[in-house]
Amino acid sequence: STILVTGVSGYIATHVAKSFISHGYRVRGTVRNQETAEKVRETFSQTPGCIEIVIVPDIAKKDAFNEAVRDVDGVVHTASPFFYKVSDFDKDMREPAVNGTLGLLKAVKSFNSKVKRVVITSSFVAMQDFSKGHRPGYIYTEKDWNPVDLDMAYKYPSLGYVASKTLAERAAWDFVRTERPNFTLATINPPMVYGPVAHTATLKSLNQSVLDIWQLMSGQAKKVPSTSVPLFVDVRDCAKAHVRAFESFNGGRFIPVSGSFSFKDICSILQEEFPEYADLVPNPGPPDASETFGIDNSLSKKELQMSFERSLRETIKDTARSLDQIAKRK
Ligand code: NDP
């Protein structure tokens, strides 16, 4: 069977597509333009028969996905803007995130009754209440929602990204509740995603989470940044969670988590494991004494039949190794 993966050029989407292919599926991936299509062909050059690429120039446009959804057996929606410096919330964030998600769901409902499950890459930021800080003692679960709303998004540009993810996920659940389509929904709500880069990337085109690690390795970060989302998942496990969510009996919200972390921990690992970069990494100092919130994702683990056992050290070593290769490629 064939799975539509939107935004297949992305960091997570590449692992998602590879994971579906390794589980015996074919992938139809969407990209924005021909140049990106070529890069994706290069990324999947070992399995050319398993991938087909279609161009959807603007996911925010009405009817953008009407053709792309035809005849596929499942849909995974990952395409969404992920950056923090937002100047025009509507144009940069809300339209691609919310209209993109709703347009895709409408297209599946109207043009492909074969699809029984749609998986959306949401985010743990759609669950975390940032106004409460590190919230010691609190345990997040699949029931939590970030209370951010449209007014707050317009007022505080720094909330642009988290608002886009929260509003898009809410819109998706509202859609299935009111429109009663043929499919059920599963959302994957990952915290910070780290791990090897599998797509054709340069140091200038790194996605936001991997860029955080490169800034720590390359001397661009002079101080250890504060850790606003203190949980991580390895990108390979996050990708597998998408496959399992597609195949799972029940839909729902799933939180893939490998463990907790702080940027201080990451700096220590980078210094210990990569002597060549050690002097560029900001000095972590003593570990943080303050407690952060906890997580109970046992429902997700049970439904996905996954245990998420990769350690922070393994994930960061593999991230840094692939960044080192990208840096030395030129
Ligand atoms: P990338 O930036 O690597 O991937 C984003 C993908 O979305 C790319 O394919 C990109 O296309 C596409 N995209 C971005 N903006 C638009 C737009 N305006 N119109 C159409 N397509 C667009 O990031 P990630 O792989 O990290 O993120 C993938 C998904 O995972 C996102 O939904 C993100 O919110 C979510 N996520 C990521 C986390 C992380 O730590 N990385 C954590 C939690 C959730 P193009 O290649 O053309 O730019």
UniProtKB/TrEMBL annotation:
Pfam families: Epimerase (PF01370). CDD domains: AR_SDR_e. The keyword Phosphoprotein does not apply. Residues 3-250 form the NAD-dependent epimerase/dehydratase domain. GO terms for molecular function: oxidoreductase activity, acting on the CH-OH group of donors, NAD or NADP as acceptor. Keywords: Oxidoreductase. PANTHER family: NAD DEPENDENT EPIMERASE/DEHYDRATASE (PTHR10366), STEROL-4-ALPHA-CARBOXYLATE 3-DEHYDROGENASE, DECARBOXYLATING (PTHR10366:SF564). This is NAD-dependent epimerase/dehydratase domain-containing protein. It comes from Penicillium daleae.
